[in-house]
Amino acid sequence: MYTKYQDVEVCIAELKRKGFDRQQTIYALMEVLKVNVVVADNWVLHSIAWQY
Fold first, then answer.
1. Distances from the Cα of 52 to the Cαs of 11, 30, 31, 33, 46, in angstroms?
2. Are the CB atoms for 28 and 15 separated by under 8 Å?
3. What's the pLDDT tens digit per position in 37-50?
């Protein structure tokens, strides 16, 4: 599904648009992409969607 980082950015932006907070977004990334909390948190932390 979302395997490339650009696709992860789109996924994060869509989750934010749907009303997910940061914690919910991290949890969703962990579930969908089977990554650990450190990786998911790092993606959200550096995401353009959460910069604004």
1. 16, 23, 25, 24, 11
2. yes
3. 999 999 999 999 88
| Average pLDDT value for residue range 2-9 | 70
Count of residues for the chain?
52
6: pLDDT strictly greater than 80: no
Angle at 19 between CA 35 and CA 46, to 5 degrees: 45
What CA–CA distances, in Å, run from 35 to 7, 31, 52? 15, 8, 25
Compute, in degrees rounded to 10, the torsion defined by CA atoms 2, 49, 25, 42. 80
In whole angstroms, give the CA distance from residue 6 to residue 25.
Answer: 16
Contact 49, 12 (CB under 8 A): yes
